[in-house]
Specification:
Strand content: 15-25%
Distance between the termini: 47 Å
Number of domains: 2
Number of strands: 22
Structural class: alpha+beta
Radius of gyration: 33 Å
CATH class of the largest domain: Mainly Beta
CATH topology of the largest domain: Beta-galactosidase, Chain A, domain 5
Largest sheet: 16 strands, antiparallel
Shape: elongated
Helix content: 25-40%
CATH architecture of the largest domain: Distorted Sandwich
Length: 583
């Protein structure tokens, strides 16, 4: 039974690691798609400063209508293309008056590898669309909206406790009127911008598509030996009480989805960009955009939204996948955090981790303390499991003796049933439950998997330092100290645990700690820390349990004749009791 439990644990974690490595793998885009085959990202440092783009002509507010050659004069417009910086407590946003679009959305408190604030709007070296680009059915109108110099309501915006708005307006002599409004309320809705848009022509009002463009550049965390511990950018939406997550291959098969969405957008391991349409029906279209080539290629996801009516005060969330922040904005938005099958257990564990952190102030020590508390709560189950396994170990000589008498029989031979009956009779006489060593261990498995899921996606441990060489608990241990210690404790725990298998099988089982050590070399150090502390606790508990139950008892195997005589005496004794009862 012990061998089966250990094998089940090994296979379960192997499946988890393989599953993690297959989440949204980068997939090349088919050639027929009208997207660039290879583009690169422009470093954030090269595009953060507000710029003023001077037009070469002396009359920047005039344009020529290609259709009839008539001159179109911009009535309400900006003189030059420039950047408008909006800063809140959580975000530094940069908008451009050219098209009134979002150029940059940097998160304060979350850093890139370079140390700069984390950027959610990837800047490509192509003229791809930027967030909040308006797309019309008429290509010429779309081009005009993209190149129009919108007049901003402010040169810059500092948003504090009171909500504030940034408005872009454009009007020309050809009858085109366009307006965009971005409203910020960081105190009540952090990382959220409310967006409104209207477009009017001489033919009347139109309903433009809101295009986001390639979203969430993402960054992969090191995955040693073929395993990846990060989630690539993927499409995500919540509809009909169910969260759908789509990789590039899913999008190629079905790019457009319609319905009433609680939220819809793109996410990666730690961040989310999504519209919250409050169940207003809309259609969303996705397309993959490959960045780079070869092994370094990452596929970003471009998406656009068509509302039934022009968007009015529609919320867009662009920020971390922090469970509490998402829940404060919209209860359904918290579904974007993918805790997996054991989410019912991960959520209380997540709250417990943050509660401990509130007192400790270090997520590394918080993981250690929470691991100790969890293992202390599971102490009785593990103790019962070890006691049951010790009893099974003591019975092994007698069980092997019984099995030896039926050694030459085939599995299909009816006499094999007699062997099973003798083994079960031995268990019953000694008061041993053969499943007693397995069930307590199996009951602890949901907690182990839940903690694994928690530390795999919790943004709280991103950039969270521990001690000395571990400065980011979401990254692998650079010196491989914790994975090696974890492997050593696994070996020690396995050697101390009562075993019911023979010496050859024990040697085979000792390969598992080696395999786990190599698998965890590229795992987040926070996850390895949890596994190491849990193993260390297991070693200590094994020492305590061994002292409580004492050394194993040695049962001598009686010869077959002696066993037969004892059974006969017992049978006669029982028969005498029955006859005595009748009298």
């Amino acid at each position: 039974m012990e061998k089966r439990v250990l094998l089940a644990v090994f296979l379960s974690f192997l499946v988890l690691f393989v599953y993690q490595s297959l989440i949204a793998p980068p997939t090349p885009v088919p050639e027929q798609q009208a997207v660039p085959a290879e583009v690169t990202l422009t470093p954030p440092a090269q595009r953060m400063e507000p710029t003023v783009e001077r037009t070469p002509t002396a009359e920047p507010m005039r344009a020529t209508d290609v259709s009839d050659g008539a001159e179109v004069i911009a009535v309400v417009a900006d003189e030059v293309a420039r950047d408008i910086v909006v800063e809140t407590e959580q975000v530094i946003a940069v908008f451009s008056s050219r098209g009134g679009v979002l150029k940059s959305w940097r998160l304060q408190g979350y850093a890139e590898e370079s140390g700069d604030p984390y950027e959610l709007v990837p800047s490509l070296d192509t003229s791809g669309p930027l967030p909040f680009t308006l797309v019309a059915d008429d290509e010429q109108l779309t081009a005009k909206l993209r190149e129009a110099l919108f007049r901003p309501s402010a040169a810059s915006l500092q948003v504090g406790a009171r909500p504030r708005s940034l408005i872009f307006e454009y009007e020309d002599s050809d009858g085109l009127q366009a307006r965009k409004e971005y409203r910020f309320d960081p105190q009540n809705e952090p990382f959220v911008v409310r967006f409104s848009a209207s477009v009017k022509t001489t033919a009347g009002s139109m309903n433009p598509i809101v295009r986001w463009g390639p979203g969430l550049g993402g960054s992969s965390t090191g995955g040693g030996f073929g395993f990846t511990y990060s989630q690539r950018p993927q499409a995500i939406f919540f509809r009909d009480e169910e969260v759908s997550r789509l990789d590039s291959s899913d999008i190629e098969e079905t790019p457009t989805y319609e319905g009433s969405f609680q939220f819809v957008g793109v996410d990666d391991q730690y961040f989310l960009s999504a519209a919250i349409p409050d169940s207003i029906p809309l259609a969303v279209s996705y397309r993959p955009v490959p960045i780079g080539s070869g092994d370094d290629q990452v596929v970003l996801i471009d998406y656009e939204l068509r509302f039934q009516e022009p968007p009015t005060d529609t919320r867009f969330y662009m920020g971390p996948k922090d469970f509490d922040i998402l829940g404060s904005i919209d209860t359904e938005l918290a579904q974007a955090v993918h805790f997996g099958f054991f989410s019912w257990l991960v959520v209380p564990l997540h709250r417990s981790l943050k509660w401990v952190y509130g007192y400790v102030g270090n997520y590394g020590w918080s993981i250690i303390l929470l691991t100790i508390m969890i293992n202390a709560a599971m102490f009785p189950l593990r103790h019962k499991s070890v006691v049951s396994m010790r009893k099974m170990q003591e019975l092994q000589p007698e069980i092997k003796s019984i099995q030896g008498r039926y050694k030459g029989l085939k599995t299909t031979d009816p006499a094999k049933q007699k062997m099973n009956q003798e083994v079960m009779s031995l268990y019953r006489d000694r008061g041993v439950n053969p499943a007693g060593g397995c069930l307590p261990m199996l009951l602890t498995m949901p907690v182990l998997f839940a903690f694994y899921s928690l530390l795999s996606v919790a943004i709280e441990i991103r950039d969270a330092p521990f001690v000395l060489w571990i400065q980011d608990l979401s990254q692998p241990d650079p010196l491989y100290v914790t994975p090696i210690l974890m492997g050593v404790t696994m070996v020690a725990q396995q050697r101390m645990t009562p075993s019911t298998v023979d010496a050859t099988q024990q040697k085979v089982m000792m390969v598992m700690p080696v395999v786990f050590t190599f698998m965890f070399l590229g795992a987040p150090s926070g996850l390895v820390l949890y596994w190491f502390v849990s193993n260390l606790w297991g070693v200590g508990q094994q020492v305590v349990t061994n002292r409580i139950i004492g050394p194993p008892k040695v049962h001598t195997v009686r010869p077959p004749a002696e066993r037969q005589m004892k059974k006969l005496k017992q049978k006669r004794k029982n028969g005498h009791r029955v006859r005595g009862g009748k009298r």
